[in-house]
Amino acid sequence: MRLSKYFLPVLKETPKEAEIVSHRLMLRAAMLKQEASGLYAWLPLGYRVLRKVQNIIEQEQDRAGAIELLMPTLQPADLWRESGRYDAYGKEMLRIQDRHERDMLYGPTNEEMITSIFRSNVKSYKDLPLNLYHIQWKFRDEIRPRFGTMRSREFLMKDAYSFDLTKEEAVKSYHRMFVAYLRTYYRMGLTAVPMQAETGPIGGDLSHEFIVLADTGESGVFCDKALLDQPIPPKDVDFDGDLTSYVRDWTTMYAATEDMIDMDKFQSEVPEDRRIEARGIEVGQVFYFGTKYSEPMGATVADANGQEVPVHMGSYGIGLTRLVPAIIEASHDDDGIIWPVSVAPFELALINLKAGDEECASTCDGLYKQLENAGIEVLYDDRDMGAGGKFATADLIGLPYQMIVGPRGLKNNEVEIKNRKTGERTNVSLEQAVDFLLERIVPERRQDV
Ligand code: 5CA
């Protein structure tokens, strides 16, 4: 993409309304624009990141055996009357009437609708286990939407729903999602620690929140430091096999949010020098809630004896529009964002230092083609302006690598490559520049881990 043809209205000033760094940077880097309280437009740069996050989630969900579909944002109230949640959900739910005065709502979550899809289509235990997921906008009329898309009213969520014959089988489904989550966050450059959690309006008796440690997080958390170094299940993990050992690795050591903390247990189980008392961002939550929805809604299957039994269910959420700021909270400096390659809107900023210089322009044009042919995602700053502004933009929007092309370097047949994260600068010959980048960028995509 040529920056001269792109839409990247970066801000020089720091917007006053933004209280935390990720919100400030998302506004300054032209990723977002607020349209109303808790409602945001995703501008092109932000949308590219959101799509990368979505891709990783889809790959890991699919790998774990979940099947993608798409349900509507609007739902009939009658479904929610069946589960009893229409009244229970309260003011967070946006209630709407259509022209026939039928009660509708903008979905805050989809347990009811997926249960209705299930009950109309699945009749036998032989069709289980089943896990269906979608990635769809949700609306929750939060009392205090804040921190940009960290806590917004409309937000994009991945929600998966598992169906099993027995509790024992349902726990296996829970484990599959648990392992997929560890891999998903890791691929985005995050360490998300699973912590015992309350179940709130979703219900059930088994739940973990996945928490990224960050000072600006909304949850107080308590955990064992050693958890941060636990191994991530590998790409070829067998989702049909026994996953308990992975789950055990991540759940044996103490970790709980402030809602669930048992101080005596925390202090007796975790040696003092390993106790983390910190804040964190909840980037996902998984629930097992048995027959809470299947029973009132009549989602049953025939078991091996021909007996109709309600299925055991779980649900598994990831907040995509929250993950993007969470990644920024975990990875930025005074100059701007530092994207991990795997979610970067572009992998490389190609910077022509001297606009108007014919040799610089033609070399950059040539490199741009070569880089694109090599499959590197390039944002080519070909604008007719000084180098200072180009550097500032590249640092602000946080592309992992910069390739800087100027007359001085070209005299020696060289370009400069800067690593945004480490600040390290290397002069590389024109001939080797593309390979130099490929060697670094390809493993950092984390597609094969
Ligand atoms: N039905 C279940 C799981 S599918 C569910 O709704 N779970 S949840 O309430 O925990 O939401 C799942 C994830 O969505 C949360 O972990 C969080 O990352 C994200 N999320 C929830 N509320 C918001 C919000 N107001 N703004 C941004 N993200 C949110």
Automatic annotation (TrEMBL):
<dbReference type="InterPro" id="IPR045864">
    <property type="entry name" value="aa-tRNA-synth_II/BPL/LPL"/>
</dbReference>
<dbReference type="GO" id="GO:0005829">
    <property type="term" value="C:cytosol"/>
</dbReference>
<dbReference type="InterPro" id="IPR033730">
    <property type="entry name" value="ProRS_core_prok"/>
</dbReference>
<feature type="domain" description="Aminoacyl-transfer RNA synthetases class-II family profile">
    <location>
        <begin position="38"/>
        <end position="340"/>
    </location>
</feature>
<dbReference type="GO" id="GO:0004827">
    <property type="term" value="F:proline-tRNA ligase activity"/>
</dbReference>
<dbReference type="Pfam" id="PF00587">
    <property type="entry name" value="tRNA-synt_2b"/>
</dbReference>
<comment type="function">
    <text>Catalyzes the attachment of proline to tRNA(Pro) in a two-step reaction: proline is first activated by ATP to form Pro-AMP and then transferred to the acceptor end of tRNA(Pro).</text>
</comment>
<dbReference type="InterPro" id="IPR036621">
    <property type="entry name" value="Anticodon-bd_dom_sf"/>
</dbReference>
<dbReference type="InterPro" id="IPR050062">
    <property type="entry name" value="Pro-tRNA_synthetase"/>
</dbReference>
<keyword id="KW-0547">Nucleotide-binding</keyword>
<dbReference type="InterPro" id="IPR004154">
    <property type="entry name" value="Anticodon-bd"/>
</dbReference>
<keyword id="KW-0436">Ligase</keyword>
<dbReference type="InterPro" id="IPR002314">
    <property type="entry name" value="aa-tRNA-synt_IIb"/>
</dbReference>
<dbReference type="InterPro" id="IPR004500">
    <property type="entry name" value="Pro-tRNA-synth_IIa_bac-type"/>
</dbReference>
<dbReference type="InterPro" id="IPR044140">
    <property type="entry name" value="ProRS_anticodon_short"/>
</dbReference>
<keyword id="KW-0648">Protein biosynthesis</keyword>
<keyword id="KW-0067">ATP-binding</keyword>
<dbReference type="Pfam" id="PF03129">
    <property type="entry name" value="HGTP_anticodon"/>
</dbReference>
<keyword id="KW-0030">Aminoacyl-tRNA synthetase</keyword>
<dbReference type="InterPro" id="IPR023716">
    <property type="entry name" value="Prolyl-tRNA_ligase_IIa_type2"/>
</dbReference>
<keyword id="KW-0963">Cytoplasm</keyword>
<comment type="similarity">
    <text>Belongs to the class-II aminoacyl-tRNA synthetase family. ProS type 2 subfamily.</text>
</comment>
<dbReference type="GO" id="GO:0006433">
    <property type="term" value="P:prolyl-tRNA aminoacylation"/>
</dbReference>
<dbReference type="GO" id="GO:0005524">
    <property type="term" value="F:ATP binding"/>
</dbReference>
<protein>
    <recommendedName>
        <fullName>Proline--tRNA ligase</fullName>
        <ecNumber>6.1.1.15</ecNumber>
    </recommendedName>
</protein>
<dbReference type="InterPro" id="IPR002316">
    <property type="entry name" value="Pro-tRNA-ligase_IIa"/>
</dbReference>
<comment type="subunit">
    <text>Homodimer.</text>
</comment>
<dbReference type="InterPro" id="IPR006195">
    <property type="entry name" value="aa-tRNA-synth_II"/>
</dbReference>
